[in-house]
Design a protein that fits this description.
- The longest helix is centred in the first third of the chain and has 28 residues, at about 20-50.
- This protein has a 6-stranded mixed beta sheet with strand order 7-6-3-4-5-8, with helices on both faces.
- The protein contains 17 helices and 8 strands.
- About 50% of the residues lie in helices and about 20% in strands.
- It is of the alpha/beta class.
- Helix 7 (about 210-225) packs parallel to helix 8.
């Protein structure tokens, strides 16, 4: 336990430093901290060499002091400059402030924790200044969060499982500064569910406006990281998406999001018909079998086909990939017929990015996404859904056994 100063010592400290305001206290403690640290470093070198400075009579080593080097450190009191003593042989390894160490507090953890919650650089600076009296520069905050980049690269390139039961793919859009202008960027997100019901974010990629061409590169990346087969992919209605999936995973069944299909359908509908059309579409995707769903689609065409032929044409054109979920039991149907799982993840990301309308770089966006993703960690589906996944083959079986 650290020794406690007596009241007389505290009073003397206040008097000697003429402390009148909180700013005075912070400044005095900052100087005291630096002076104490400096003395501890001196004591470490005395112990290393076996004699105190100028005590040559007790010197029993050929090693000598060799001046001091300046070093800027960050502590609870902000950034300070200290002078680290050197030895001539270069054998001295300080412990109180190690070589290459520039932070001697938990301030880095606080910066990263606030950054993960979407707190802006300016607000992080204000928070540390108002609460702790610590002044940190925007450059320092950037340098601290940049230490995440190697971790992100390692995570992004980690090996994946060979077979996934279901994989959700969707993009979320943000504005990023690029070449002196503001560009619309797409963050490509992939969530996988393995054969044991564990769900995990498999990766994230920052690219230009969402396109099937970029999704093809994402799918190839998944293959390169060990994914040999995906049983079902759940996607929106982006043009060319299905072809990209089939090019990489030819045996994968594609489930197009029913909610996206409904949204696309209602684009053609006048406001006065919207509620009725939406209600008449519901029996199609709520049917218990695919045959009954087709009957309901025929019925919808009889009612609305002449007024809104494009809706009927769209459902029939994409039917094979809309109706995939009818092959599976209710637990699996509920899981795959929409992209709600990945959209829920997107909502969590938007919570931490809502304070930033524009990101300075792709990396700044990626850092925030990574921290938010690590915050949610891998989780497991409910017992009923996990049990339903038992119909899928195990990794040591042929994945095509299901098909």
């Amino acid at each position: 336990m650290a020794p406690k100063f007596s009241k007389d010592q505290v009073k003397a400290f206040i008097k000697e430093n003429a402390l009148k305001t909180m700013a005075d206290v912070q400044s005095a403690l900052k100087e005291l901290f630096a002076d104490t640290l400096q003395e501890m470093l001196e004591a470490e070198l005395d112990h290393e060499l076996g004699y105190a400075k100028h005590d040559v009579a007790n010197k029993q080593t050929t090693n000598n002091r060799n001046g001091k080097s300046k070093k800027t450190i960050t502590s609870e009191y902000g950034e300070q400059e200290i002078r680290v003593s050197r030895d001539r042989n270069g054998e001295f390894e300080p412990m109180i402030v190690k070589k290459h160490q520039s932070n001697v507090s938990g301030i880095e953890d606080q910066i990263i924790a606030m950054y993960a919650k979407g707190v802006s650089t300016r607000d992080i600076q204000d928070h540390l200044l108002n609460l702790y009296g610590v002044e940190v520069s925007s450059t320092m905050i950037s340098n601290v969060t940049n230490k995440l980049i190697p971790l992100i690269k390692e995570w992004q390139n980690r090996p994946l499982q060979g077979v996934y039961a279901v994989v959700f793919m969707d993009a979320i859009h943000f504005k990023v500064k690029q070449d002196g202008a503001i560009a619309n960027k797409a963050a490509y997100m992939v969530i996988g569910i393995d054969l044991d019901g564990n769900k995990d974010v498999l990766g994230m990629w920052i690219g230009e406006k969402e396109s099937s061409k970029f999704w093809l590169s994402v799918l190839n990346d998944l293959r390169n990281r060990g994914v040999s087969d995906i049983l079902i992919t759940c996607v929106d209605n982006l043009n060319g998406f299905s072809q990209a999936i089939s090019a990489c995973f030819p045996n994968t069944e594609i489930q197009k999001c029913v909610i996206h299909q409904i949204r696309n359908s209602t684009r053609y509908v006048s406001y006065k018909d919207l509620k009725k059309v939406t209600a008449d579409l519901k029996p199609i995707y709520k049917a218990t079998t695919e045959d009954m769903a087709l009957v309901e689609l025929d019925r919808f065409e009889e009612t609305w086909g002449s007024k809104y032929p494009l809706i009927v044409c769209s459902w029939r054109t994409h039917w094979d990939e809309i109706a995939t979920f009818f092959k599976y039991p209710p637990e699996i149907r509920k899981l795959i017929y929409t992209t709600n799982m990945i959209e829920s993840y997107h909502r969590q990301l938007r919570k931490v990015t809502k304070g930033k309308s524009i990101f300075p770089t792709d990396e700044s966006l990626l850092k925030m996404f990574y921290l938010a993703t690590m915050d949610r960690s891998c989780s497991k589906l409910g017992a009923n859904t996990t049990a339903a996944l038992g119909l899928f083959p195990r990794p040591d079986q042929s994945a095509s056994a299901l098909r």
